[in-house]
From TrEMBL:
GO terms for cellular component: cytoplasm; exon-exon junction complex. Residues 80-94 have a biased composition (Basic residues). This is PYM homolog 1, exon junction complex associated factor. Residues 10-36 form the WIBG Mago-binding domain. PANTHER family: PARTNER OF Y14 AND MAGO, PYM PROTEIN.
Length: 200
């Protein structure tokens, strides 16, 4: 916005202007050659001026020649960009292999849980099928769910046994409501565990 100047016999003036709140500024006398603050150009050092005036393209390259490489970005990658793409591909493959490896770990851990050691020191494997067999996804998901339930039931039974031992030894004299309920469910938990182990 250009500043309105008023000239009379006593000199040059900036005319009175109205502020946004409705009040008026007084007219100000200025000397010849005065440039208002908002019209003064921002100072730029020589480096800023150089980079602003610098062309986007290398010297001697016309804009029409520069356009085709931008269309073929995938084909004309730098060495580092190609290296980065290879790394990304490797990471993706490793991630996919890692997910497959997790399934193997789960099947082995399930097999280890199903192995029990008898008092004679001999190990008896409760599962009939080998752990390395890979059933379809639905079956494996169901088997994983069953294994999780079995593990949970075994944990609850251990807690019940520990509680029963504490009661028998006199460590716990008065049972709470929860503790008595837990002891009452021992038989039901045992039956459910046996049923699941028979099904699997």
């Amino acid at each position: 916005m250009a500043t309105p100047y008023v000239t009379d016999e006593s000199g040059k003036y900036i005319a009175a202007t109205q502020r946004p709140d409705g009040t008026w500024r007084k007219p100000r006398r200025v000397k010849d050659g005065y440039v208002p603050q908002e019209e003064v150009p921002v100072y730029e050092n020589k480096y800023v001026k150089f980079f602003k005036s610098k062309p986007d393209l290398p010297p001697g390259l016309s804009p029409s020649e520069a356009a085709p490489p931008k269309q073929h970005e995938g084909a004309s990658l730098s060495k580092s960009a190609k290296r980065n793409m290879k790394r990304k591909e490797k990471r993706k493959q490793q991630h996919q292999q890692g997910q497959d490896g997790d399934a193997d770990v789960e099947s082995v851990s399930d097999a280890v849980e199903n192995v029990s050691i008898s008092e004679g020191g001999e190990s008896a494997n409760k599962t009939a099928a080998p752990a390395s067999a890979s059933p379809p996804d639905d079956d494996s998901a169901a088997a994983a769910e069953k294994a999780k339930k079995i593990k949970n039931l075994k944990k609850k039974l251990r807690q019940v046994e520990d509680l029963q031992q504490k009661v028998d030894s006199g460590e716990i004299k008065q049972l709470t409501k929860d503790q008595s309920e837990k002891l009452g469910r021992a038989k039901a938990l045992q039956d459910e565990l046996e049923q699941l182990e028979r099904d699997s």
